[in-house]
Amino acid sequence: MISSRDWNDWHWQVRHSIRDVRGLRRILPLTRAEGDACTLCRLPLAITPYYAALIRKSRALRRTVVPLPAEFARAAGELDDPLGEESRMPVPGLVHTYPDKVLFLVTDQCAVYCRFCTRSRVVGSGAIRSDVKSWSRAIEYIKKTPAIRDVLISGGEPLILSDGRLEWLLKRLRAIKHVELIRLSTKAPAVLPQRITPALVRMLKRFHPLWLSVHFTHPDEFTPEVAKACARLADAGIPMCSQTVLLKGVNDDAKTIKRLMLGLLNIRVKPYYLHQCDAIAGSEHFRTPVQKGIDIIRSLHGFTTGYAVPMYMIDAPGGGGKVPVTPEYVVGRKRDELLLRNYQGKTFRYREGK
Ligand SMILES: *Cc1c(COP(=O)(O)O)cnc(C)c1O
Predict the structure, then answer these.
(1) Cα of 297 from ligand 1 centre, angstroms
(2) Would you call 141 helix, strand, or coil by DSSP?
(3) Which residue in 166, 172, 247, 346 has the fewest CB atoms around it within 10 Å?
(4) Within a domain: residue 159?
(5) What is the mean predicted confidence (pLDDT) over 143-147?
(6) How far is the CA of 328 from the centre of ligand 1 (A)?
(7) Residue nearest to atom 7 of ligand 1 (CA)
(8) Burial category of 120 from C-beta neighbours within 10 Å (exposed 0-12, middle 13-18, buried 19 and up)
(9) pLDDT tens-digit profile of 290-349?
């Protein structure tokens, strides 16, 4: 028997994570192919006991964290580093693609490794350094680059770091005058909600404006623990926006995405991005046609709360950045008149200003 005290302790969850085929077999019947994939996969395996309990009941979530042999196949157009991040690092761990914001990779460790990870080339491999010296080089670059007003802390999972180490980092970033916005990109609320302790939240709220980008995949992730974690964050005035990767056989239908987006609003998370799955090596079994995403967005807009409609994005290969892909609602133009098509498919003329 596991005491509830242990279960609710995030350190216990991390310490007891499933990290190999033997551990996984103890909780799930595995096919031979899955078993082989667990033994051979390059991207490490880790599943918190909390998330393991969810995947036992959810085929969709199971697919996102249990390796398959398809991971080893490289389809046409797939790359190890599809976003070209490695060539956009002025210092190791800091990706500077856009003019006024940087992506700061502070660790390569995760509580749970997603099989579709866009950074599978580096996570869990020791390639992203978390020592003071490496962090200091990145902080120095931010300090001497006044154009940077937004720092997005990511990884790996930044919330796998201790409160003390996060505080060290946030203090130094907050001390830089031109850094206005600090964001943390995390999957902890979904896969390790125990991490969102009162102490963590008290520490984070000292560094406002601090926002969270939270990664959610499927409505099966909504539990009382998740609701409590997000309530703590929201009550601390930490705005949360969501990111979801569109995944074949997991969440690639309008009903599931609608339930996910409406559920996020209920826990005070604003649906932000629906990502087309990046073309990383071994991702073909996860990637959908782009039309699927467009259809899903079309099924939401107008039919439900506008807040629930995320932006559908494709991150362009080679460092092109995120490109929004939207259904067409302006369907024609005649001189100063636009032909608009609404969510119901009815068309309207609108005379624009001069
Ligand atoms: C996604 C991303 C950001 C943040 O983008 P927003 O659209 O502002 O959320 C910043 N830098 C890099 C390299 C990114 O990939």
Answers:
(1) 21
(2) helix
(3) 346
(4) yes
(5) 98
(6) 24
(7) 322
(8) buried
(9) 999 999 999 999 999 999 999 999 999 988 999 999 999 999 999 999 999 999 999 999
Angstrom distance (rounded) from CA 35 to CA 32 = 5
pTM recorded for the entire structure: 0.97
Say what the pLDDT of residue 235 is.
98
Question: Mind giving me the DSSP string for 72-126?
Answer: G---TT-BSSTT--GGG-SBTTEE--SSSEEEEE--S--SS--TT-TTTTTTTTT
**Token code pair at residue 293:** 């995403």
Query: Rounded to an integer, what distance in angstroms lies between the CA atom of residue 147 and that of residue 168?
Result: 23
* pLDDT tier, 61 (very low <50, low <70, confident <90, very high otherwise): very high
CA of 101 to the centre of ligand 1 (A): 7
pLDDT at 41: 87
- The pLDDT, as a whole number, for residue 47 is 98
Q: How far is the CA of 184 from the centre of ligand 1 (A)?
A: 12
Q: Does a structural domain hold residue 98?
A: yes
**Residue 1 domain-assigned?**
no
Tally of structural domains, the chain: 1
Measured in residues, the chain has a length of: 354
Distance 315 CA to ligand 1 centre (A): 10
First to last CA, the chain: 72
CB 186 less than 6 A from any atom of ligand 1: no
Domain that holds residue 313: 72-324
CB 45 within 8 A of CB 37: no
- Is position 57 within any domain? no
